[in-house]
Write a structure and sequence with these properties.
Helix content: 40-55%
Structural class: alpha+beta
Radius of gyration: 22 Å
Distance between the termini: 37 Å
Oligomer: single chain
């Protein structure tokens, strides 16, 4: 199997290098294309393992010399399940490319891109070739394609599973600058195993986690829900604001402090423990990956998927 992998990369290297070699022979180094840098102001959710390795690799080669299309294979691998349909993978590739180009333009941190060694560890020898080929095909078949709104790169947000409806950025982020994140029905997420979670905390653990994140917060460990009130939810039912003994907290802050799947949550004391029921997995903005996979399974193209979850955008290279 290792010999097959080596052979595969040799063939891949030759295929990728041939056009470059021909160009050098005809034009010299001046014929080498430059990367166009672009715009966005937000970062997407990505896995964090290996960030230091990824950043040092990029810095070593120089951001201006980054092969975006090759880099994207590792980015998409870090962001979406490999058993999803090809059109869902293509949609994620366009999202990743949009965010990478925007980060390059804004000189912001790039999304994590898993190295070939990490992909081999993650997939094993049995699944490596098939998975790598699927991802390479998804990236190549959307080569150069990005999402724009009025000529600018969009904040291409995504999450694993919605709470049944994706969120509106005007509500969730209190921003009028991202009208493409309007929020839309995504009830196709309901069958997901990640759609509904019930988490129980001992009262002491609950109080300690909150105190760690909010040292100034006053909490009664014997009755930790005293003084807590959810004061605002958005149209997707995610918690926006809550007050806790006079202190105002953001829904996402509370979620992160307790390491909950989402901020679409309902909290109650049950039999001496704190029970929190959550819907969805992730922040709920932009494309639901689970919903995208359902759409792909029903015959939707990646363009259909992106136009459904992002409103009034331009999809082009």
């Amino acid at each position: 199997m290792k010999e097959k992998i080596k052979t595969f990369f040799c063939v891949l290297f030759l295929a990728c290098s041939l056009p470059y070699i021909i160009t050098l022979c005809l034009q010299g180094k001046e014929g080498q294309p430059n990367i166009v840098q672009n715009n966005a102001s937000e970062k997407t959710d990505t896995k964090q393992d290996g960030k230091e390795e990824k950043e040092s690799d990029v810095e070593a080669m120089g951001r201006e010399d980054l092969d975006i299309e090759e880099f994207l294979v590792g980015v998409v691998a870090a962001q979406i399940p490999m058993n999803y349909a090809s059109e869902a993978l293509k949609a994620q590739a366009v999202i990743a490319r949009t965010n990478v180009k925007a980060a390059l333009e804004q000189d912001e941190e790039l999304p994590e891109s898993l190295s070939q060694e990490k992909l081999l560890d993650m997939w094993g020898e049995e699944g490596y070739l098939d998975n790598y080929q699927r991802l390479s095909k998804a990236v190549e078949s959307t080569r150069g394609v990005v999402m724009r709104y009025q000529g600018n790169y969009v904040y291409a947000a995504f999450h694993a599973v919605s709470a049944g409806r994706t969120r509106n950025a005007k509500e969730a982020l209190e921003s009028d600058h991202m009208p493409w994140l309007e929020g839309t029905d995504s009830t196709s997420d309901i069958p997901s195993e990640e759609f509904l979670k019930v988490t129980f905390f001992e009262k002491k653990e609950f109080a300690e986690r909150l105190k760690t994140s909010f040292p100034e917060l006053e909490i009664n460990e014997e009755a930790p829900l005293e003084g807590m009130e959810i004061t605002a939810r958005d149209s997707g039912d995610y918690v926006l604001k809550m007050t806790y003994n006079g202190m105002e907290l953001e829904g996402e802050e509370f979620r992160n402090a307790l390491r909950l799947p989402s901020a679409c949550l309902y909290i109650k004391e049950v039999e001496g423990k704190i029970r929190i029921v959550t819907k969805g997995l992730g922040h709920g903005l932009g494309m639901s990956q689970y919903g995208a996979n359902v759409m792909a399974g029903e015959g939707s193209s990646y363009e259909d998927i992106l136009n459904y979850y992002f409103k009034n955008i331009e999809i082009s290279d």
